[in-house]
């Protein structure tokens, strides 16, 4: 599918090598201390950075231990890095180019760096509330794990000899054709909601939807149609929705 696209996963090319995935993972890990540096550097000169000492957390039950807001923020990025590492080293058997790894690290850091800037000024953002951070982080965690569960289910299906050459249509794959992309939209929106509130959340929603609908889904479906033929057409007729049931 992406033989002529060096910034895409090379579909059908199973000559997996270590350097590119390792570069990607190390680059993604570097995003966490860089985000920490951005927030603590306080580029906007905000008098009160988000912390348990400056925020009203009375909405939380007394029995529920509350992590520091900055910790919650960084953990969200850590969850994505963990999930991506599992995908690269356990789930993806196809070749990753250095261009893909570099672009992936750069694009994620730009987005996460913007989120760090927005979060550093959260206490001055009239559309943000402390509740949004914890609710968004919870949804982010759930969506990331649903995506990972769907990917692990598909790998388990593919690893069975009797399923060679077959499409996985069970579980989330029987609800929409790209549940992994669907959860990307959800946890991207949750990340934006947690760091900048509902208005800022529109930014990652537009970014993810634009990428998937215009860039990722069309060539992937073309590849699957070529690889699976009538089996894909039957699946496409049975599972009508690409990302969201009843919508798209």
Characteristic key phrases:
Delta14-sterol reductase activity, single chain, 248 residues, membrane, UstE-like, globular, lipid metabolism, mainly alpha, 7 helices, steroid metabolism
Tell me what you see in this structure.
It holds the Pfam family DUF1295. GO terms for molecular function: Delta14-sterol reductase activity. By secondary structure, the chain is mainly α. Helix content is 63%, strand content 0%. The protein has one domain (19-51, 67-238). It has helices spanning 19-41, 69-91, 98-120, 130-159, 179-196, 198-228, 230-238. The longest helix is centred in the last third of the chain and has 31 residues, at 198-228. The two termini are 23 Å apart.
Secondary structure topology:
Elements: H1 19-41, H2 69-91, H3 98-120, H4 130-159, H5 179-196, H6 198-228, H7 230-238
Helix pairs in contact: 1-2, 1-3, 2-4, 3-5, 4-5, 5-6, 6-7
Question: What's the gist of this structure?
Answer:
The protein is built from seven helices and no strands.
Q: Return Rg in Å.
A: 20 Å
Structural class estimated from helices and strands: mainly alpha
Judging from the principal axes of the Cα atoms, what is the shape?
Answer: globular
The N- to C-terminal Cα distance equals 23 Å
| Domains, number | 1
Alpha plus pi helix count: 7
What is the number of E strands?
0
Largest sheet: none
Measured as a percent range, the helix fraction is: 55-70%
Low-confidence stretches: none
The pLDDT mean sits at 89
Family: Belongs to the ERG4/ERG24 family.
Pfam families: DUF1295 (PF06966)
Keywords: Lipid biosynthesis, Lipid metabolism, Membrane, Oxidoreductase, Steroid biosynthesis, Steroid metabolism, Sterol biosynthesis, Sterol metabolism, Transmembrane, Transmembrane helix
GO molecular function, one term: Delta14-sterol reductase activity
């Amino acid at each position: 599918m992406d033989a002529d696209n060096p910034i895409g996963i090379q579909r059908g090319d199973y000559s997996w090598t270590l350097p590119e995935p390792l570069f990607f993972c190390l680059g993604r890990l570097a995003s966490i201390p860089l985000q920490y540096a951005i927030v603590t550097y306080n580029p906007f000169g905000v008098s009160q950075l988000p912390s348990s000492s400056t925020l009203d957390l009375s909405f939380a039950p007394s029995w529920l231990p509350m992590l520091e807001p900055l910790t919650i923020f960084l953990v969200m990025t850590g969850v994505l890095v963990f999930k991506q590492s599992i995908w690269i080293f356990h789930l993806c058997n196809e070749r990753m180019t250095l261009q893909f790894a570099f672009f992936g690290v750069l694009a994620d850091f730009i987005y996460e760096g913007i989120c760090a800037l927005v979060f550093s000024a959260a206490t001055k953002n009239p559309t943000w509330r402390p509740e949004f951070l914890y609710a968004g982080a919870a949804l982010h965690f759930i969506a990331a794990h649903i995506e990972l569960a769907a990917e692990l289910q598909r790998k388990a299906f593919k690893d069975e000899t009797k399923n060679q050459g077959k499409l996985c249509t069970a579980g989330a794959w029987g609800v929409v054709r790209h549940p992994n992309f669907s959860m990307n939209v959800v946890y991207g929106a949750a990340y934006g909601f947690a760091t900048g509130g509902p208005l800022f959340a529109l930014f990652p929603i537009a970014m993810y939807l634009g990428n998937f609908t215009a860039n990722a889904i069309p060539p992937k479906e073309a590849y699957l149609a070529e690889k699976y033929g009538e089996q894909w057409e039957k699946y496409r007729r049975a599972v009508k929705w690409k990302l969201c049931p009843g919508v798209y």
